[in-house]
Amino acid sequence: MKHYDLVIIGAGPSGYAAAMRAIDLKKKTLLIEKSTLGGAGITNGALSSKTLWELSRDMLAFRKNLDRYHLEPPKAVWKEIQVEVQNAVQERVHLLDSHLQELQNNPKYATYIDFIEGEASIISEHLVEIETLDERLAFETDYIIIATGSRPRFLPNIPIDEKYILTSDGIEQMEDFPESMVIVGAGVIGCEYATIFSGFGQTKVYLIDKGDSILPFEDADVVAVIEKNLEAQGVHIHRNSSLSRMERENGKVRYTLNFSDGHQETFEVDKALVSVGRVPNYEKIWKEAVPIKMGKRGVEDHDTNTSVKNIYAVGDITADINLVNVGELEGRYAVEKIYGSPKRKLVYENISTIMFLNPEVAGVGYNEKTAQAKGLNYKVVTTDYSTIARAVAKRNTQGFIKLLVTDDDEMQILGMRVVGEQASAAIQAVALLISMEKGIEELAECVHPHPSITEGIQESVRALLGKSILKSGLLKDKVNCYCYDCNKKERVMF
Ligand SMILES: Cc1cc2nc3c(=O)[nH]c(=O)nc-3n(C[C@H](O)[C@H](O)[C@H](O)COP(=O)(O)OP(=O)(O)OC[C@H]3O[C@@H](n4cnc5c(N)ncnc54)[C@H](O)[C@@H]3O)c2cc1C
Ligand SMILES: NC(=O)c1ccc[n+]([C@@H]2O[C@H](COP(=O)([O-])OP(=O)(O)OC[C@H]3O[C@@H](n4cnc5c(N)ncnc54)[C@H](O)[C@@H]3O)[C@@H](O)[C@H]2O)c1
């Protein structure tokens, strides 16, 4: 029986990254994928939804520009949008596919990588079986990395058929823009699709929110901007509502909501999207004899180690953050851990994220909610986009920068949120400083290009240090600094 150093199950972002790191270390590696290379990082996930978001954003901007010149906007055609999304997906899958083939044909790498299309399962600690289209294969291995990802969570009694009642796995296969759509779950996926469909301007979107605000993990000031824009685009948010029934009836979707004030109402729409979180793909991956422990939200791992010594788990299958960059980080880390000791610890504090909303929201580290939950005292500066020359030039000053630092002389950076145009471009310098456990002096003194959004970050830092150009608290809601005392639960402006 053929023997490998390492078998990796799943070629999404985490599995693929792990395989590439194993090649660097000259380990004989087998990568197995049962469906499409790139997993949810490409198909029905990150890349496809971001392509939709970009197209929707272009359409929104186009409509606004035409409006400026009193011209009638054209209608977006779903089939054309769909083709563009498929092109993006195929380009990316093709890139990975060609890359794998090149590796397998190149004498420098060929010894170290094999790729098999098929469904893998772990029979015992050192034995993996694969069912391909026409045969069943078995391989021995020293180590295994499970990178089988996640899938949409279903709700009991909601009959998802991926035609009328959809998840993110079915939404891109729709035949046309629906005239109306309800989205169940106002988290990241729900809010991104609400932004996308309201941006195209052909779908009346309803968003079901269990609580009194969407994106329940974000600070209220961030949420306020996003909610305002969604509503301005015609999105109706059903606040404090719980879904009691949803069913398909005469080609429509009928749903009934119970509101927290006691009343109940029934609505009818063309389509529904259920986006209430994801569940790990763990069923059938290992046999009962393999004692891998599962937690409520995924494989219980300790820095990528599972409860079985030679088996590791990375990416969405584990119970932490579900993101492409986190999956890749864990995949690479697991390989380095198996074959030595990684140079850096696996830390999640400096993970940067972007939520593709209107406007985009970039984040890294703590926000006020998470800092308060941790019992931290902190200082905050908020700087409005209207103080940033680049935003003024763009004629879009909606948004702000919010930076949190420790409430001591060092002012170590705890986290940042940027809501507004080019937010994503502004976040990385701060992510680096967090990972280096640095204070804010470095940012204050580094010269930023002009006009740029990052100048706003520099001014924010300078405000905390008491040396900004626009002084804190003088212009209402422009630049404000405050301390938060977790014991007293109070803010003090400075
Ligand atoms: C709509 C949507 C939008 C998203 N947007 C973003 C975003 O903007 N930014 C971001 O960072 N993240 C985003 N994410 C999250 C991101 O896609 C995931 O966190 C990431 O893809 C997880 O990578 P993974 O490799 O762990 O799992 P996956 O990408 O799920 O890949 C797992 C792979 O394993 C394969 N597999 C499963 N079982 C087996 C088996 N038995 N044998 C062989 N192969 C198997 C699957 O076919 C799949 O290809 C988004 C997700 C969704 C659904
Ligand atoms: N831009 C990005 O980085 C990006 C984009 C999309 C997805 N993702 C990843 O994918 C993951 C999954 O996204 P998601 O939006 O499905 O999950 P989520 O955890 O972000 O949001 C789920 C939402 O559904 C709500 N909910 C749960 N049960 C409900 C019910 N019965 N009725 C109504 N609402 C209910 C929750 O309160 C929550 O707001 C995210 O955690 C994220 O890591 C990231």
TrEMBL record:
<dbReference type="GO" id="GO:0045252">
    <property type="term" value="C:oxoglutarate dehydrogenase complex"/>
</dbReference>
<keyword id="KW-0520">NAD</keyword>
<dbReference type="InterPro" id="IPR001100">
    <property type="entry name" value="Pyr_nuc-diS_OxRdtase"/>
</dbReference>
<dbReference type="GO" id="GO:0006103">
    <property type="term" value="P:2-oxoglutarate metabolic process"/>
</dbReference>
<keyword id="KW-0560">Oxidoreductase</keyword>
<feature type="binding site">
    <location>
        <begin position="148"/>
        <end position="150"/>
    </location>
    <ligand>
        <name>FAD</name>
    </ligand>
</feature>
<dbReference type="GO" id="GO:0050660">
    <property type="term" value="F:flavin adenine dinucleotide binding"/>
</dbReference>
<dbReference type="InterPro" id="IPR004099">
    <property type="entry name" value="Pyr_nucl-diS_OxRdtase_dimer"/>
</dbReference>
<keyword id="KW-0274">FAD</keyword>
<feature type="domain" description="FAD/NAD(P)-binding">
    <location>
        <begin position="4"/>
        <end position="328"/>
    </location>
</feature>
<feature type="binding site">
    <location>
        <position position="316"/>
    </location>
    <ligand>
        <name>FAD</name>
    </ligand>
</feature>
<dbReference type="InterPro" id="IPR050151">
    <property type="entry name" value="Class-I_Pyr_Nuc-Dis_Oxidored"/>
</dbReference>
<dbReference type="InterPro" id="IPR036188">
    <property type="entry name" value="FAD/NAD-bd_sf"/>
</dbReference>
<feature type="binding site">
    <location>
        <position position="50"/>
    </location>
    <ligand>
        <name>FAD</name>
    </ligand>
</feature>
<keyword id="KW-0547">Nucleotide-binding</keyword>
<keyword id="KW-0285">Flavoprotein</keyword>
<feature type="active site" description="Proton acceptor">
    <location>
        <position position="450"/>
    </location>
</feature>
<dbReference type="Pfam" id="PF02852">
    <property type="entry name" value="Pyr_redox_dim"/>
</dbReference>
<dbReference type="GO" id="GO:0004148">
    <property type="term" value="F:dihydrolipoyl dehydrogenase (NADH) activity"/>
</dbReference>
<feature type="binding site">
    <location>
        <begin position="185"/>
        <end position="192"/>
    </location>
    <ligand>
        <name>NAD(+)</name>
    </ligand>
</feature>
<feature type="binding site">
    <location>
        <position position="277"/>
    </location>
    <ligand>
        <name>NAD(+)</name>
    </ligand>
</feature>
<protein>
    <submittedName>
        <fullName>Dihydrolipoamide dehydrogenase</fullName>
    </submittedName>
</protein>
<dbReference type="Pfam" id="PF07992">
    <property type="entry name" value="Pyr_redox_2"/>
</dbReference>
<feature type="domain" description="Pyridine nucleotide-disulphide oxidoreductase dimerisation">
    <location>
        <begin position="351"/>
        <end position="460"/>
    </location>
</feature>
<dbReference type="InterPro" id="IPR023753">
    <property type="entry name" value="FAD/NAD-binding_dom"/>
</dbReference>
<dbReference type="InterPro" id="IPR016156">
    <property type="entry name" value="FAD/NAD-linked_Rdtase_dimer_sf"/>
</dbReference>
<comment type="similarity">
    <text>Belongs to the class-I pyridine nucleotide-disulfide oxidoreductase family.</text>
</comment>
